[in-house]
Amino acid sequence: MYNYRNYLLFSFLKKNIMQEGTVKFFNDAKGFGFITIKETGNEIFVHTSNLVDDIRENDKVSFKVEQGQKGLIATNVRRM
User: Fold this and answer.
1) Dist CA 38 CA 28 (whole Å)
2) Are strands 43-47 and 60-67 parallel, antiparallel or unpaired?
3) What is the CA radius of gyration of the chain?
4) Which of 55, 54, 62 is nearest to 37 (CA)?
5) Number of structural domains, the chain?
6) Cross-strand bridge partners of residue 50
7) Going along the chain, which residue ranges are E strands?
8) pLDDT of residue 1
9) Is residue 17 classed exposed, middle or buried when 0-12, 13-18 and 19+ CB atoms within 10 A define those classes?
10) With CB atoms counted within 10 Å of each terminal CB, which end of the chain scores lower, N or C?
């Protein structure tokens, strides 16, 4: 779903290609979770298909931000 707030956040984050954050929640069984973006404090969705490394709650990670079908998603997610 597209909205102006997501557009502004995406535009801001895209300027800084790789982002850093902390895994707030990740469910291995369901294959998804959320990362808190260090620079903004916003949460972003992450799917298991976009992981480079296995992640767990409270892991520090780096990632790229992309626009998905339902909003912003974290891709190329790596543990730091």
Assistant:
1) 23
2) unpaired
3) 12
4) 62
5) 1
6) none
7) 18-27, 32-37, 43-47, 60-67, 72-79
8) 47
9) exposed
10) N
Structural tokens at position 40: 């903004």
Residues 45, 71 contacting (CB under 8 angstroms): yes
Q: Which domain holds residue 59?
A: 4-79
| pLDDT tens figures, 2-57 | 566 666 666 666 655 789 999 999 999 999 999 999 988 999 999 999 999 999 99
CATH number at residue 26: 2.40.50.140
Q: What is this structure's pTM?
A: 0.82
Amino acid symbol at 38 = K
Residue type, 50: N
